[in-house]
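2024-03-11 09:14:02 INFO queue: dequeued item Aspartate aminotransferase family protein, len=460
2024-03-11 09:14:02 INFO validating residues
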Amino acid sequence: MSQSKTIAPNSIEARDIAYQFHPSVDLRRYEEEGGLIIDRGEGIYVFDQAGKRYIEGLAGLWSVAVGFNEKRLADVAYAQMQKLPYYHSFNYKAHGPSVDLAEKLVQISPEHLTKVHFTSSGSEANDLVVKMIWYRSNALGLPDKKKIIGRVKGYHGVTIAAGSVTGIPANHGSFDLPLDRMIHTLTPDYPRDHLEGETEEQFSARMAEALEELILREGPETIAAMFGEPVMGAGGVIVPPKGYWEAIQAVLRKYDILLVADEVICGFGRTGKMFACEVYGIKPDVMVTSKQISSSYMPLSAILMSDDFYNPIADESHRLGVFAHGYTASGHPVATAVGLENIKIIEERDLVGNAARLEAQFLSGLRGLESHPMALWSRGVGLIGALEIKGTAKVGEMGQLAQACLLEEGLIVRAIGDAICLCPPLVITAEQVDEMIAAIGRALDALAETDLARSVLEEA
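2024-03-11 09:14:37 INFO prediction written
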């Protein structure tokens, strides 16, 4: 919506501006301009109130694996609503859907992950993992082993602890974050940050050396865990270079530091494997999942953990008489029933295989756009990728303009800095991949005709 658009009184647009406090926006700008009202969805497409169709190139928020109108999920939710619309998992209570989903997750996840705890979002899950880590250190008689390592540009949520592990300045400013127990190591962004002549393996070794230097500077006895996304999402779709995770895990093992794999974006097929840990040879102590676990049809997240992580926590709860934590909606029966059905659909329709089969076409399409005057380089794995475009001295200025051009072309993306980031629903077809790439090409052409882009191209 532009500032020049007339907004009818009492319309949904007007009421939206009047009453809603929106996340992740400039609130004063929203008061002036409003936002795009999405009315319905169908497969990989969503439609606004005027009926214009858009490819949802970010699957909502990296999350809708099965498309936007999967009737099976609606039917399962309705059936569960009729049978048991809500129950909790406090005070020695349980119900079937959460038990069934926990069992399924253990079956399909790396075999050393044997226990599951449910929450309602990735932020909640990562926040709780931090609390669990501190609880576990106390259980082990290590009261000083509490620091958490995140990565610059890493994203783990917006709650106080998870937002502190996050390494994005915008998530810290004026919130009094990060907490002082949270420290950050370097971003493994090889295309942007490698030294002249440095191979990917050499770059990865340098990232591991920087991590070890941080650990030694802070004191290994004070550091409990490191959080990392196998592929960094909200930091700009940063794909780890060769040897990165092998080198990082070796350092963590050397100093007895836990590894938390944040698979909130990567999990359930996004990278061409059920979990990205399989792609990169990661053996985490804890794996956090959300988003595609239910295609975000219901709020749901799951923390999977090893016996070595779980047992000290269980022992401490026995000593104290309770693990004094829980959310009203933890393991919600409707959410977990939908999550289980969603995973069944992913398996039955081989959507993990679809991501693997379409990877070459998707990534080659992005590489083909690198020759455009406005483009720099592309990156990705499976069905998650990004195209870096030429920007101005003000990082993100060109990205936002590109995002607007893409919206005109009927493609919704996320501009992160000056990168066009893509993560389409896993039900996307080969023809629709081509449709998406063509839309990016047209939008880049339109972008190149703007005054801002002309000035950048003239300076190049």
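2024-03-11 09:14:37 INFO annotate: The first helix runs from residue 12 to 19.
2024-03-11 09:14:38 INFO item closed
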